[in-house]
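Hi R.,

Here's the chain you asked about this morning:
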Amino acid sequence: MITVLILFASSQWSIAQEMGDSTQSNKYWKFRSKLDKYFGIQASYMNLSNLNDLLQANGYPEISMLQFGVGLGVGYDLGPVLIGVDLEGNVNFSDKARVRTGRVGMFVSTNKIVAGQMIVSPFVSFGLQSTDTRIRIKEEGATVEGLLQSDRGNVIELEHFSPVADFGVALKKRNAKGWTNHHMRVGYRIGLQNAEWKLGDSNSDAVVADRINAAYLQWCF
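And the predicted structure, written out as tokens:
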């Protein structure tokens, strides 16, 4: 009789443990299905209009405004809205001027707009953008109208910081497990401040300001 009771208690404990493991597993997969993440490569086209106007007016080449980089983000689907954080880094490819751009922000989106098997997900993001530029000039110690005085020979380094807002749309699709896979993101970034460029070696104003906007296209995988 005691042996039977022991076996019965053991079986009940095993069933309860399996149910507990199953409950934990279900909670985990439910949490995973609520996550919305992406990683991709992107191309962007930004405006550096005032800085380029100053350079061109003094016979210096225009800085390339085409950049390539990567972006990633993670969010959590709360039902009607999706909230998360994202960041990106971009660089241009030029032997005359290197431009690097980085941004970190928070975004709000939704997964409630469905067209066929595709999710059309508009988003808005607010963040901070950092841009640094390294310009090669023609002559040792040259200046541009005395505004971009360089203490580093024929190299001028500039920095630019500004709050930005992004508006765009992402195309997604759910897989068999209910997870969201991003396919493409397209957006437009607006600089919220007409910020001064700073000389990198002294942090003083370069007496030229830009409101940097950018259009971008991202391929996700």
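Confidence is low (pLDDT under 50) at residues 3-9, 15-20.

Let me know if you need anything else.
M.
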